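<goal> How does this chain fold?
<sample>
Here is the protein in question

***
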Amino acid sequence: MSVVIEVPPVGPSGPLGPTGATGATGAQGLGGVGIVGPAGATGPTGSTGPQGSPGGATGATGVSGSPGGATGATGAAGFAGPQGATGPVGPAGPISFTTGDIKPTFKIVADAGFVMMNDGSIGDASSGATTRANADCINLFTLFFSNTVDADVPLQTSTGSATTRAAQGSAAAAWAAHCRMVLPKALGRELAVAGAGTGLTSRALGSNSGAETHTQTTSELVSHPHNVQGYQSNIAGTPYYSYIAGQLPTYVGDMSNYATPTGGSAAASILSPRTHVNIMVCL
């Protein structure tokens, strides 16, 4: 069976009444945390607090570790690499000369510190020397005074008159007296080594010898015979002689044919092939 309930119609709403007092807060619901609000402004920095106490004392040094093992044996040497190419030859260094050293040259003016060996003389500025008259000649002057003799390297006064080493007494005295020292002869001559070679004539330092030509003497000729024979003259009744070298002549009659001298006795050149240069000697 069905029951029907009739609901009367709702009338119009009345005017809104005044708000009532707020009720007490209810218990927090079970919902989640609400949205975080914006951060507040940063507050002022607080004052610095007092310094804390220092750290603790440094701990003791730890025990040193044990040393490393012994050094191992040296390994075998490696193979040598190939030799590099030879570099270019560097420039020649200067040649050092000292007093009395000579050098050949094709120059006609001596280098600084040298004089030409021109058969002249050297001495101080008042000596009247012909090759060089200057105070820088004293060392060469002294060397010639000490190592050579008057016959080969003569000493002269400032006027050019001959004097001797004995008369002057010493190189220093001769220099102080403004003497000249004549240089050893060199012009047109070959140079040879002084001394006494085995089997050769002894030659003094600074001496000169030899000649460009020579004429032979009879004693220099090789011994040889001259056979001369005579024969009878065509003139009837005249005598003739017969000569045999090394024997006394035997008279056998007159001789109309005999040996006639020949030759001009001219001096022969004994020059060896050579090239001529100048020589300078170091002061």
